[in-house]
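Weekly modeling sync, notes
Attendees: S.R. (lead), two postdocs, one rotation student

Agenda item 3: backlog of single-chain predictions. S.R. asked that every request posted to the team notebook include the full sequence so nobody has to chase files. The rotation student volunteered to paste the first one in as an example of the format we agreed on. Action items at the bottom.

Example entry:
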Amino acid sequence: MGIVGNLSSDQLQSFHSQGFLVIESFSSPEEIDNMRKRMDQLLDEFDYSTSSIFSTKNQQQMTDNYFYDSAEKISFFFEEKAFGNDGNLKQPKELSINKVGHALHELDPVFKNISCSEKVSGLLVSLGFRRPVIIQSMYIFKQPGIGGEVVPHQDNSFLYTEPPTCTGLWLALEDATVINGCLWAIPGSQKNGLVRRFIRDEEGVHFDRPSPSYDSKNFVPIEVKAGSLVVIHGDLIHQSFENQSSKSRHAYSIHVVDTEGCKWTQENWIRRKVHPDPLYAA
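Predicted structure, as returned to the notebook:
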């Protein structure tokens, strides 16, 4: 394989204790600039008459074939508050998009280069992945004023393997602060295991049980500078609030699962027609 793990023992200990790890300056200013410019191009070419609204509050009602098909495409999802009562956008489309997903890492050369880099693989080697695949990628905008809330959740709920292996890699493309909607997490909450599953069946998609209520005082903010990577355990309870500032909070996120010694379940919302290639095989 030839790929060497790049996390220190202290970093690994912190990750396993807290359920998340911040790696500062993971991406260079040039890499960030390349991703942001490329997304500007994609948005400029995008015809919004074929899109969908994205919401984590109301996923059952908002999910449609556009969402399902996005697993192997580059698809665009609007903020809930992007449209007026007349059905028209309140502001330009580039300020109205919630996210773009879920196959940027496969279909776009700029995002593929970042996602499949040796430093990403080295991180996954350190975490013990044997044959990792990127199962989804998202460019998240967190627009000023309308950037919506992401409710408390666990990534393993949506991207489940038996046994669970999902790990999130969340790259800040702009500084993320309490004011503009940074991540918040409950440190150590991954030790309590998976709370619920997000199931796809003949009736559509739904959670298999209600969400627990969480005490807000248990969450801590994860404020990071642009270029920082937040590594997120699949069972960590995390969320983000609305962007109340006048500045956006762009981020690029990928989710990785292992394909050795575990099984991707057919009840997941992602049902790919073509299996993704592994980043490496140990």
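Discussion: group reviewed the output briefly. The longest helix spans residues 29-45.
Action items: rotation student to repeat for the remaining queue; S.R. to check formatting next week.
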